[in-house]
Predict the structure of Ent-kaurenoic acid oxidase.
Amino acid sequence: MGTIVASTEIKKVRDLFIGEHVTFANIFRMFISMEPSPLTEQIDQWFGSLMAGLRAFPLDFPGTTFHRARKCRQKLNAVFRHELEARKKVDKKCDDLMSGLMCTEDEQGKRLSDEEVVDNMVNLVVAGYESTASAIMWATYHLAKSPAALAKLREENMAVSESKGGSLMITHDDLPRMKYTAKVVEETIRMANVAPMVHRVANRDVEYGGYTIPAGWPVLVWVRSLHTDPVYYQDPLTFNPDRWDKPAKPGTYQAFGGGYRICAGNMLAKLQITIMLHHLSTGYEWELLNPDAKINYLPHPRPMDGASMTFRKLRA
Ligand code: HEM
């Protein structure tokens, strides 16, 4: 059993498992039926630069993060546009999101414009890619620091795998048996706060904490402060999956926002993290190289060293 030393900075966590960028590869297969290739590697980099510019100061001239993000956005639009035109030319339909968006009709039989299809494609990758990959990184980080939780997770997932003759393929039917795994996913998402804020506008005057928020004011729900409030979460900075034996008090768990605009991909995100945890916990053990590395919170929370870890295969 060799020891792999690798930076698990999101991409590398994905690399470790099946030798490719799992989250990105999954998203690309589901969204546009593209297999990993030099082009998808390039697209991956453009998305990275676009993400970096999301919360950058909006200075749009060469050399700034914001400018780079805008340029990358244009390149991404061009790639999706090219694929869309190619499909239209030969009337090609795939079992993926792009074809779904191209064919969807509203009650009046109206379809999305090409621009709307491309816009939705880019936005959905932005919404669903780095957020989920980052949550997977945080799951491995917290589990590396919580051996007891990792042991319970491994026990549950080994049992699931053994009951299927050692198969690593989990299906929807296995999920009811993966109760502890579900709690690890929930606790990871609570602590990771990969989407640090939720945006709203007050649609009427609201009294809150002795203040009045006037109608029309923009409001930022700072999710981390909610998720680390000891009034709602006992010992909030401790990774404790068992706290999810009881559901959170309504309104105190906003990792995916809430109401009409709740994250459209929340179930998909949880499923992807669950699958990844199943494979990692049954196949590997891992250790943080710098457990006390400082955390950078903006633009997205991550350990400053990218969560460098050693991974070791549990079985051949
Ligand atoms: C751990 C992973 C994820 C986190 C923490 C997350 C978090 C969020 C948050 C906080 C919002 C704003 C919700 C609100 O304003 O109430 C949001 C919106 C959204 N998310 Fe996610 N998300 C994740 C994964 C995904 C995935 C995998 C997809 C789809 C592929 C996705 C698609 C969307 C979409 C389409 C919206 C906009 C919904 C709307 O405005 O109606 N997200 N997400």
User: Anything to note?
Assistant: The pocket of protoporphyrin IX containing FE is lined by residues 124, 127-128, 131-132, 135, 189, 194-195, 198, 255-258, 261-265, 268-269 (CB under 6 Å).
